[in-house]
Amino acid sequence: MAGQPRLTERAMFADAVLAMALWFGDDCERARSICAELRAVVTGGPSNSPVQQHVVALVRSVTGFVAAQSGDMSTATADLQVAYRQQCPPDMPIVANAEVCAVALAHALGRAEDAAVMLGAAAKVRGPDDRTDPAVAPGQRVAPRTR
After folding, report:
1. Please, what are the domains in the chain?
2. DSSP state of 18
3. Could you count the other beta carbons within 10 Å of the beta carbon of residue 129?
Protein backbone atom coordinates (compact mmCIF):
# COMPACT_ATOMS: atom_id res chain seq x y z
CA MET A 1 0.00 0.00 0.00
CA ALA A 2 2.80 2.38 0.81
CA GLY A 3 3.54 4.78 -1.99
CA GLN A 4 0.31 4.15 -3.86
CA PRO A 5 -1.25 7.46 -4.85
CA ARG A 6 -4.83 6.19 -4.82
CA LEU A 7 -6.22 2.99 -3.38
CA THR A 8 -8.49 1.19 -5.76
CA GLU A 9 -10.87 -1.57 -4.77
CA ARG A 10 -8.53 -4.03 -6.45
CA ALA A 11 -5.52 -2.80 -4.46
CA MET A 12 -7.42 -2.95 -1.16
CA PHE A 13 -8.64 -6.47 -1.91
CA ALA A 14 -5.12 -7.55 -2.91
CA ASP A 15 -3.70 -6.12 0.32
CA ALA A 16 -6.29 -8.03 2.34
CA VAL A 17 -5.35 -11.26 0.56
CA LEU A 18 -1.69 -10.46 1.19
CA ALA A 19 -2.38 -9.89 4.90
CA MET A 20 -3.99 -13.34 5.19
CA ALA A 21 -1.14 -14.97 3.27
CA LEU A 22 1.40 -13.30 5.53
CA TRP A 23 -0.57 -14.29 8.62
CA PHE A 24 -0.66 -17.95 7.65
CA GLY A 25 2.93 -17.69 6.43
CA ASP A 26 3.97 -16.66 9.95
CA ASP A 27 4.84 -13.04 9.14
CA CYS A 28 2.28 -11.89 11.68
CA GLU A 29 3.80 -8.49 12.35
CA ARG A 30 3.68 -7.52 8.68
CA ALA A 31 0.10 -8.83 8.42
CA ARG A 32 -0.91 -6.67 11.39
CA SER A 33 0.78 -3.66 9.82
CA ILE A 34 -1.09 -4.09 6.53
CA CYS A 35 -4.35 -4.50 8.45
CA ALA A 36 -3.72 -1.26 10.34
CA GLU A 37 -3.15 0.55 7.04
CA LEU A 38 -6.31 -0.99 5.55
CA ARG A 39 -8.34 -0.07 8.61
CA ALA A 40 -7.30 3.56 8.16
CA VAL A 41 -8.61 3.77 4.59
CA VAL A 42 -11.45 1.23 4.49
CA THR A 43 -13.86 2.82 6.90
CA GLY A 44 -17.15 1.32 5.83
CA GLY A 45 -18.89 4.65 5.38
CA PRO A 46 -22.09 4.96 3.36
CA SER A 47 -21.82 3.70 -0.20
CA ASN A 48 -24.28 2.95 -2.95
CA SER A 49 -21.70 0.90 -4.83
CA PRO A 50 -22.09 -2.87 -4.42
CA VAL A 51 -18.43 -3.31 -5.39
CA GLN A 52 -17.35 -0.90 -2.65
CA GLN A 53 -19.60 -2.65 -0.12
CA HIS A 54 -18.10 -6.03 -1.04
CA VAL A 55 -14.55 -4.73 -0.76
CA VAL A 56 -15.26 -3.18 2.64
CA ALA A 57 -16.89 -6.41 3.87
CA LEU A 58 -14.02 -8.57 2.66
CA VAL A 59 -11.25 -6.26 3.87
CA ARG A 60 -12.74 -5.65 7.30
CA SER A 61 -13.40 -9.39 7.69
CA VAL A 62 -9.69 -10.00 7.16
CA THR A 63 -8.65 -7.20 9.52
CA GLY A 64 -11.08 -8.59 12.09
CA PHE A 65 -9.67 -12.09 11.71
CA VAL A 66 -6.09 -10.90 12.18
CA ALA A 67 -7.09 -8.75 15.17
CA ALA A 68 -8.89 -11.68 16.82
CA GLN A 69 -5.97 -14.00 16.18
CA SER A 70 -3.68 -11.33 17.67
CA GLY A 71 -5.77 -11.12 20.83
CA ASP A 72 -7.19 -7.63 20.12
CA MET A 73 -10.86 -8.40 20.75
CA SER A 74 -12.17 -4.83 20.68
CA THR A 75 -10.61 -4.14 17.28
CA ALA A 76 -11.78 -7.50 15.95
CA THR A 77 -15.33 -6.78 17.12
CA ALA A 78 -15.33 -3.31 15.54
CA ASP A 79 -13.90 -4.64 12.26
CA LEU A 80 -16.43 -7.45 12.02
CA GLN A 81 -19.31 -5.09 12.81
CA VAL A 82 -18.22 -2.93 9.87
CA ALA A 83 -17.97 -6.03 7.66
CA TYR A 84 -21.47 -7.21 8.56
CA ARG A 85 -23.02 -3.76 8.02
CA GLN A 86 -21.84 -3.90 4.39
CA GLN A 87 -24.00 -6.96 3.70
CA CYS A 88 -26.92 -5.11 2.09
CA PRO A 89 -28.11 -6.94 0.14
CA PRO A 90 -26.34 -10.02 1.42
CA ASP A 91 -24.02 -11.83 -0.96
CA MET A 92 -23.69 -15.37 0.35
CA PRO A 93 -19.97 -16.00 -0.40
CA ILE A 94 -19.08 -12.70 1.26
CA VAL A 95 -21.35 -13.43 4.23
CA ALA A 96 -19.64 -16.83 4.56
CA ASN A 97 -16.21 -15.21 4.49
CA ALA A 98 -17.20 -12.74 7.22
CA GLU A 99 -18.63 -15.61 9.26
CA VAL A 100 -15.40 -17.63 9.01
CA CYS A 101 -13.49 -14.58 10.21
CA ALA A 102 -15.96 -14.10 13.06
CA VAL A 103 -15.26 -17.70 14.12
CA ALA A 104 -11.75 -16.59 15.09
CA LEU A 105 -13.25 -13.96 17.40
CA ALA A 106 -15.71 -16.39 19.01
CA HIS A 107 -12.94 -18.90 19.57
CA ALA A 108 -10.59 -16.28 21.00
CA LEU A 109 -13.33 -15.24 23.42
CA GLY A 110 -13.53 -18.84 24.65
CA ARG A 111 -16.85 -19.52 22.95
CA ALA A 112 -15.86 -22.79 21.25
CA GLU A 113 -19.43 -24.05 20.86
CA ASP A 114 -20.52 -20.78 19.23
CA ALA A 115 -17.45 -20.93 16.98
CA ALA A 116 -18.36 -24.44 15.87
CA VAL A 117 -21.95 -23.46 15.11
CA MET A 118 -20.78 -20.38 13.21
CA LEU A 119 -18.29 -22.40 11.18
CA GLY A 120 -21.05 -24.86 10.31
CA ALA A 121 -23.34 -22.01 9.26
CA ALA A 122 -20.59 -20.51 7.11
CA ALA A 123 -20.06 -23.89 5.44
CA LYS A 124 -23.78 -24.16 4.71
CA VAL A 125 -23.82 -20.69 3.15
CA ARG A 126 -20.51 -21.10 1.32
CA GLY A 127 -21.08 -24.60 -0.03
CA PRO A 128 -18.62 -27.48 -0.05
CA ASP A 129 -15.62 -27.29 2.27
CA ASP A 130 -12.60 -25.53 0.84
CA ARG A 131 -9.75 -27.62 2.17
CA THR A 132 -7.24 -25.16 0.67
CA ASP A 133 -8.40 -22.32 2.93
CA PRO A 134 -6.29 -22.39 6.10
CA ALA A 135 -9.02 -20.56 8.02
CA VAL A 136 -11.41 -23.51 7.60
CA ALA A 137 -9.13 -26.47 6.81
CA PRO A 138 -8.79 -29.33 9.31
CA GLY A 139 -6.17 -28.64 11.93
CA GLN A 140 -6.29 -24.86 11.52
CA ARG A 141 -4.72 -22.78 14.23
CA VAL A 142 -7.54 -20.90 15.89
CA ALA A 143 -5.85 -19.90 19.11
CA PRO A 144 -4.70 -16.29 19.28
CA ARG A 145 -1.13 -15.72 18.13
CA THR A 146 0.83 -12.96 19.73
CA ARG A 147 3.94 -12.96 17.59
Report:
1. 9-126 (1.25.40)
2. H
3. 11
